[in-house]
Specification:
With 216 residues, the chain is mostly beta strands. It contains two helices and 18 strands. It has one domain (4-208). It has helices at residues 44-48, 171-180, and strands spanning 4-7, 27-28, 31-40, 52-58, 61-67, 71-77, 82-88, 94-96, 102-104, 110-111, 113-114, 130-132, 137-144, 148-151, 157-160, 167-168, 185-194, 197-210. Strands 1, 3, 8, 9, 10, 12, 17 and 18 form an eight-stranded antiparallel beta sheet that branches.
């Protein structure tokens, strides 16, 4: 299928780790991350009207908005999850099939996602679809299921990995590991059903540069 592509870059911190972790001193990386491309269904201009992508700052947080005649979606990339608000502009009921959404991490590995309200223990089970009536909005999250794990023991429990690795044990690990992630991407592929037609949207976020250095 032909896709329409939009280029767009903004600056955010890719990792929000700010303190030492565990029993060792940590060296924490932060990144400039941009929404580099949005791929929308073929002939989007004819089918969905004019399309646009903008960035804006809200309470010190960089957010990204994609809009056409069918959807208006705003993204905020957190340290461990993607946050979004989706408005249905289509004039018809819209459906999100969570099981069909996929995520590609910085290593190029494809995986499932879970959204708000799903128990960690049920993260690999089928997730019921959500319908959004015309003119209505939904605010939710996307958390890669592969990033969720359980730690046993007295201080154990459920944990989530960062979207972008950010904590290193030594300055040497920081310098080699953090810099190697520059230029990598994270991708969210989100099919949206409108009038029983699947419309594939792909949002690609690029790690543009490393914003800090390791300090001993």
């Amino acid at each position: 299928m032909k896709m329409k592509r939009f280029s767009f870059v903004a600056l955010i911190c890719g990792a929000l780790c700010l303190t030492s972790c565990g029993a060792f001193k940590s060296y924490v990386a932060s990144y400039s991350v941009g929404l580099s491309t949005v791929e929308s269904p073929a002939d989007a201009k004819q089918q969905f009207g004019e399309t646009k992508v903008v960035t804006f700052n809200e309470e010190g947080v960089s957010k990204y908005r994609y809009e056409d005649d069918y959807i208006d979606i705003v993204w905020f990339v957190g340290s461990k999850q993607f946050n979004f608000t989706l408005k249905n502009k289509s004039g018809h009921t819209l459906k999100i099939n969570w099981d069909d959404i996929s995520y590609v991490d910085t290593k190029g590995q494809v995986g499932r996602v879970m959204h708000a309200g799903v128990k960690y223990t049920d993260r690999n089970n089928s997730q019921p679809a959500t319908t959004v009536p015309k003119g209505a909005s939904i605010s939710d999250i996307l958390l890669p299921t592969e990033n969720v794990y359980f730690v046993s023991g007295q201080y154990g429990g459920w944990r989530e990995n960062y979207l972008i690795p950010c904590v290193y044990k030594t300055p040497e690990d920081f310098n080699s590991g953090a810099s190697s992630l520059v230029g990598k991407t994270m991708t969210v592929m989100m099919p949206i059903m409108i009038e029983n037609v699947q419309n594939d949207y792909t949002f690609t976020f690029n790690i543009d540069k490393l914003l800090n250095t390791a300090t001993k």
